[in-house]
Amino acid sequence: MSQEHLNPHQLQDPPRPVSRAGRDLPAAIAVGVVLAGAVVLTLGWWHWGFTLLVAAALSLGVVEIGHALARIGRHIAIVPIVTGTIAIQIGSFYASQHPDSGLNAVTVLVAVLAITVLVALLWRLPGGPEGFVNDVSGSLFTIAYLPLLGTAVPLMLGGELGRERVIVFIACVVFSDTGGYIVGVLFGKHPMAPTISPKKTWEGMIGSVVAGMVAGVIGAVWLLDVDWWVGILLGIGLVSFGTAGDLVESMIKRDVGIKDMSSFLPGHGGVMDRLDSLLVAAPVAWFILYLTVPGG
């Protein structure tokens, strides 16, 4: 058959495989491998690189939240918030690594947070009184959601066994997400929050808790050299708050009328679609580890 007699549809490339959620599966796998590789390499051998990676991810999250809020008429101070986000990560980690400098990591992050809030308020002044409260409330929400919650990461990384603390934190959340997804797909029947995230089920939640506790116990005993019950506490705490973080982001997207925060990560959506659970679970991880692991 000559090419001119072919149906035009026969000349098109075959469709790329997608997951049950409608994602581009090859792209999602490729992006996931790259992200995992970047985290492993920097966390394992270059902590400053990991700090910059976290700062970049949080900054992109600020931009995504800013664009999402703009859909409902809230225009946040993106530039000051991104600047403050980067300064918090770099400044806090630097202070933790250089105790002889006279700087304290907590003092640095509190000071930078306060300055970020102040500059965000001043940033909006030239726009006049109309919509002022609307816009600055969006800015303050974004500051609390990203740079504030994100301060837990340099606090964990800067302490004794910093790398191990962060590894256990990430492992608990990743195991939780994976366990919840597998159990939910195989056995999920009872929706947990049908009006917010219809695909989440109570069966999946049980899978998340079990997987999170397994990761927590392994990490506590093998990496942190503390009692097994610390891992149970980490698993329950991080799964609970990580799931809440996922639901919070789902609520934001439903309110502004979008499916994904952006298309920055092919096959995954936006950066916030990957950070949601980690972001809310991070302060819980830091606090539990601070109380239970010496040198925090």
The oligomerization state is: single chain
Q: Which residues form runs of ≥5 with pLDDT under 50?
A: 1-22
What's the story with the biggest beta sheet?
Answer: 2 strands, antiparallel
The helix-strand sequence is HHHHHHHEEHHH
Q: Span from first to last CA?
A: 72 Å
Question: Strand order, biggest sheet?
Answer: 1-2
In short:
The protein has 296 residues and is mostly helical. The chain is 71% helix and 3% strand. The protein has helices spanning 25-45, 47-70, 78-97, 105-124, 132-150, 152-158, 162-187, 202-223, 228-256, 272-292, and strands spanning 191-193, 197-201.
Commentary on this structure:
α7 packs across α9. The chain is mostly helical. Helices cover 71% and strands 3% of the residues. Strands 1-2 form a two-stranded antiparallel sheet. It is globular and about 55 Å long. The protein has ten helices and two strands.
